[in-house]
Specification:
single chain; alpha/beta; Hypothetical Protein, Haloacid Dehalogenase-like Hydrolase, Chain: A, domain 2; six-stranded mixed β-sheet; magnesium ion binding; HAD-SF_hydro_IIB; Cof; HAD_sf
């Protein structure tokens, strides 16, 4: 764990689930106040999440200064205010088909789904999330369209999701990382038997770099908050990486410091050092 002097930040970046919001999906008061004060002082704030753009609004509505989000673990750069996808990186149907075949071999009984991207959060021209029959959603708000196995891999996707309830996400990720090689990048944001595969080299840090170039955001003193393996690259890239007390060991190892849990306002407690 790195220990170097830092602050104040020039850019604040936060993961959402398990980090910015508590267990009831609420941004708590101390964190809201610190982020409001940061905005008043001209410090930009960006969400960096595994969530797709269509799941950003419930978070942005709790804050009054969210202009940009890096979604789908870095595969999508999204303008929240304008509701426009600025950039995306997708796996081709051919690669998706290869991944699906490998997944069925390496993780027997798994369910497959694909996250697609349109031009906005709710682009009616694109079915955003398609899943095979029997796919068990990892969250309480399933919004997928059930399709046949061939249809899952019939169009480009920002990520393929592999689901096996009750399995270890760590073990699933290890198996698929070894099997897919350089076809895709493997990560996960929950321990509950779900892994996500994206374009090689795509992660939250690369998405943030692309956003910084597009929006001319300062990256000289970035502070980033996260809790899971899909945050590791971002935590290492930031000048100050902060893991939550509830974080996965990989995120803790990548961070400069550990704050309190997401239910105990870990983000707000750190930002309160500079923004009161």
């Amino acid at each position: 764990m790195r220990r170097t002097p830092f602050g104040p930040p020039s850019l604040i970046v936060s993961d959402v689930d398990g980090t910015l919001i508590d267990g009831s999906e609420t941004v708590r008061p101390l964190t809201r106040r610190a982020l409001r004060r940061a905005a008043e002082e001209g410090t930009a704030f960006v969400l960096a999440t595994g969530r797709p753009p269509r799941w950003i609004a419930p978070i942005a509505e709790q804050l009054d200064h969210v202009t940009y989000a890096v979604c789908a673990n870095g595969a999508i750069v999204y303008d929240v205010t304008a509701d426009v996808v600025l950039q995306s990186a997708t796996l081709s149907p051919e690669v998706l088909a290869e991944i699906a075949e490998i997944a069925r071999r390496e993780i027997p009984g798994c369910g497959l789904a694909a996250e697609r991207v349109g031009e906005s959060a709710h682009d009616s021209a694109t079915a955003p999330f398609v899943a095979a029959a029997g796919y068990v959603h990892a969250w309480l708000n399933p919004d997928h369209v059930e399709v046949g196995d061939d249809d899952i891999v019939s169009a480009p996707a920002v990520k393929m999701l592999i689901r096996k309830p009750g399995a270890s996400s760590d073990a699933m990720a290890a198996a698929m990382t070894a099997a897919v090689g350089d076809r895709a990048a493997v990560t996960f944001s929950t321990d509950n038997g779900l892994i996500e595969l994206a374009v090689p080299g795509v992660d939250k840090s690369t998405g943030l770099r692309r956003l910084a170039e597009i929006a001319s955001l300062p990256v000289d003193a970035v502070i980033a908050f996260g809790d899971m393996p899909n945050d590791v690259e971002m935590l290492r890239w930031a000048a100050r990486g902060v893991a939550m007390a509830n974080a996965h060991p990989a995120a803790r190892a990548a961070a400069d410091e550990i704050t309190t849990s997401n239910d105990n306002e870990g983000v707000g407690r750190v930002l309160h050092r500079w923004f009161t």
